[in-house]
User: What shape does this take?
Amino acid sequence: AITTLEEEIDALRQKRNDVESRVGDEITDNKSLSDDLATQRSEVSTLERRISRLQSQLAETETQLEEKRAEKEQLDIPEQPEANTDVEEKQQRVDEISLQVDLLEGLHRANQRVIEEDELSLVTSIDRTIVEDEFDCWICGESTTTETIETRLAALESKIETLREEQSNLTDEIETLEAQQREYREKKQQVTRVEEEIGDLSAKRDDLQRDLTQAQERKSEVEDQVSELEADLEQAETELSEELTDIKSEIKLKTQELETQQNRLQELETKQDDADELRAELDGIEDEIETLKERKESKQRELKSQFDEAMATALDHFAPGFDGARLD
Assistant: This one.
């Protein structure tokens, strides 16, 4: 029975070594899971900040877009004024009148000076009478008087004023048309500018909305990955704890069996001559059990240290989501 117990203890020792090796691998795997979990949680935080920023930018762009649309609604585009040909025709007439006025003013001024300075003799012969001086018109050669010439000059001055008035009216019309055309062009340019700004803002809004949708979808994907990693880590921790519990239970069981064998040995010491040999064998078993206990305790301390270090590393990355693990 003692030999059988020794064999079982040796098998248990080998099993313990195998489990310890596997536990070390699991601790390494858990650390890898913790690192992956930290990376994924960091990405979630980054995506949350990006989503918040995109939402703010989208709201601001929507506000700007509404303002520009309201601005466009308020723009009152006047009716398109007359074509440039009308302005050109009027300007051509103004130029003609200007030339005519210059000619008539020169004519009026020269003849007016002849009359005012009494220099008719310079341009015609004078027949002086008691009633009124008569002379030949120096333009047409017909007989005329100073009064008639003055009447003609007054009519000429009236013609000049008429032309000036027409010129002034045409100039006013030209300025009005040009102002209308200028206002029309400015309004059209303003509308075009606002429409371009609306187009740019609409494109920007669409880009922001697309980026926001992509960021939200990516965040949902990463959160699913985080949930899976948390479940994997929790399962690994549970399996590790159960494995260690099984080892302790099995060692306890074998210890109890050994105590039973020790009791039997004590009984045999009083009945058999080979009690000393059995005692020596029992001593050897006790030494092996003691060694096994010491190795168990040492390994438990080592496993606890490795596990605590791995958990501390995970907790340093992301404090929430983990409870303190203990290895008893």
Summary: The CA atoms of residues 79 and 184 lie 8 Å apart. The chain has four helices and three strands. The beta strands are 126-127, 134-136, 143-145.
